[in-house]
Each structure stands twice: as structure tokens, then as C-alpha cells.
Amino acid sequence: MRKVIYPGSFDPVTFGHIDVAKRAVSIFGNLTLAIVLNPEKRGLFTLQERVDMLKQATKGIKGISIDTFDGLLVNFVRQNKANVIVRGLRAISDFEYEFQMALTNRKLDERIETVFLMSSEQYSYLSSRAIKEIATLGGDVARFVPPCVAALLRRKLSAANRS
Ligand code: PNS
């Protein structure tokens, strides 16, 4: 069985990510969602919060596990004896960034393939950045993210407003 890694920032996880994860696990039978620890890109959520949210959001989906990594993605893929990277494509605007990343990873290790999956069109406009902006401006994100994410967003933002 091919071992498959779905890397990302997941800051926070959205229904779009979950849709891609379900599609991937239905094809490959296994999937590790790998949250990147990027010291240069401070997220709204801590790494532990993202792990907890992803665990809750994917509870009950057979074949999914959650992990974290720092450094090069290809190293993490190799360490896990995996050979496939999954990424979601929402719109043509994603293509250039994804194309560049996939070809860079292929240069670093030509045995690792990147597979792109299209999320459902109902999520094609969704992004973690938009979710954070909507929530910060007082909008309702319940249609876009799992309840655990919406709840943590509310808690984070009300704590930030108090301080
Ligand atoms: O959800 P994101 O932020 O679009 O995910 C980007 C991610 C984590 C896939 C990308 O930043 C990554 O692979 N980072 C690890 C560093 C790396 O391997 N860089 C070289 C490939 S471009």
C-alpha cells in the first residue's frame, strides 16, 4: 500500500481540507495529515491547537492520522516511508504555487509524486485566511469549519479583544 502525506498549515482546518482528505483516503486507504511547523510564519493557532482540531475534525474517518513536521517536506515523506504527497486544488489561481512546489519536491526526490485532488465546488472559494478574516470581523464561520474550530476561533478572538 502506498503511504500518503497531505501536508499543510491547517491554520485552521476547513471543510475544504476535510473534503480533500476524505477523497484521498478513499483512493489510497491511508492518509497522514502533516502540519508544518514554520518558525517564519506565525499562525493564529499553536501547533498543538491545530493537532487537536484536526484530530477532532477527522474523528471517525478510517485510515487518517495526524502528525507534525519541520524542515523539508520530502524528508518527512521519506522518514515515513511514504511516496505520495496530496494537495488540494481549488481554483486556477492555486496552480502556479502548487506547480512550483510539486516540481521543487520532485527535484529534491524524484521518487515522490504529488497528486492533486479537486475539492468539491462548494468549497472552492474557502481558505483558512478568509475564515480568520470573517471571524475577526464578527462574521459567522459555522458553514465553513467544523464546530470545534468555530468554537476555538471565538475563544481566541474574544481573548484577543479583552487584552
Ligand atoms: O497549507 P500551506 O501553507 O499551503 O502548506 C504549504 C506546505 C506546508 C505544503 C509547504 O510550505 C511545505 O512543504 N513546507 C515545508 C518546507 C519545504 O519542504 N519546502 C520546499 C518545497 S517548496
Please trace the helix and strand order, writing H or E for each element: EHEHEHEHEHH
Mass-distribution shape: globular
Strand order of the largest sheet: 3-2-1-4-5
What is the CATH topology? Rossmann fold
The largest β sheet comes out as: 5 strands, parallel
Task: Give the overall average pLDDT.
Answer: 94
- Please identify the structural class as seen in this structure: alpha/beta
Helix content: 40-55%
Low-confidence stretches: none
Oligomer: single chain
The number of helical elements comes to 6
Q: What is the CATH-assigned architecture?
A: 3-Layer(aba) Sandwich
Task: List all distinct small molecules, including ions and cofactors, that are bound in this structure.
Answer: 4'-phosphopantetheine
Count of domain modules = 1
CATH superfamily: HUPs
Radius of gyration: 16 Å
Spatial gap, N to C terminus = 50 Å
**Residue fraction in strands:** 15-25%
